Amino acid sequence: MHFNFIPIPPSVMEKSRVYELKSRLDWGEPALTIVDVRSHDEFIQGHILGAVNMPLGELVDRAARSLEPVRDIYVYSDTDEEASEAAAKLREAGYMNVSEVQGGLPAWKAYQYPTESGAMFVA
Q1: How far is it, in rounded angstroms, from Cα 4 to Cα 111?
Q2: Secondary structure, 3-state, the chain
Q3: Which of 5, 53, 113, 120 could connect to 43 by a Cys-Cys bridge, CB 3.0–4.6 Å?
Q4: Is 78:106 a contact under the CB 8 Å cutoff?
């Protein structure tokens, strides 16, 4: 007997390592959003390739305008504390699949994963 299984990526965990997010991106799974909760100025200086900027103070309002509650969302900052606060706000607002990217941008850069600079601002 021969089975053809279609592999699927793992479900979103409450906390993710940068290599887990990178693996998910390499998988080609489009149904996720990477949210950078740092300030707009910090975001423009450099961010994870493909991330959108939703500063922490405006996060829930911006997410409500552009993200579905069932969307897989990976949030990061420069600190785990800020990413944790952002994830908590999103969960409280009804987002079900939110993961805090541990180590944030510094860890992403340490692995030499792709970054970009410039604006990708979600109104």
Answers
A1: 34
A2: CCCCCCCCCCCCCCEECHHHHHHHHHHCCCCEEEEECCCHHHHHHCEECCCEECCHHHHHHHHHHHCCCCCEEEEECCCHHHHHHHHHHHHHCCCCEEEEECCHHHHHHHCCCCEECCCCECC
A3: 53
A4: yes
Residue 123 binned pLDDT confidence (cut-offs 50, 70, 90): very low
pTM of the model: 0.86
Q: Could you tell me if 37 and 58 are in contact, meaning their C-beta atoms sit under 8 angstroms apart?
A: no
End-to-end CA distance of the chain, in Å?
53
Side-chain-side CA neighbours of 118 within 13 Å: the count stands at 5
Domains of the chain, first to last: 15-116 (3.40.250.10)
Q: What gap in Å lies between CA 122 and CA 44, rounded to an integer?
A: 13
Q: State how far the Cα of 44 lies from the Cα of 36, in Å rounded to an integer.
A: 11
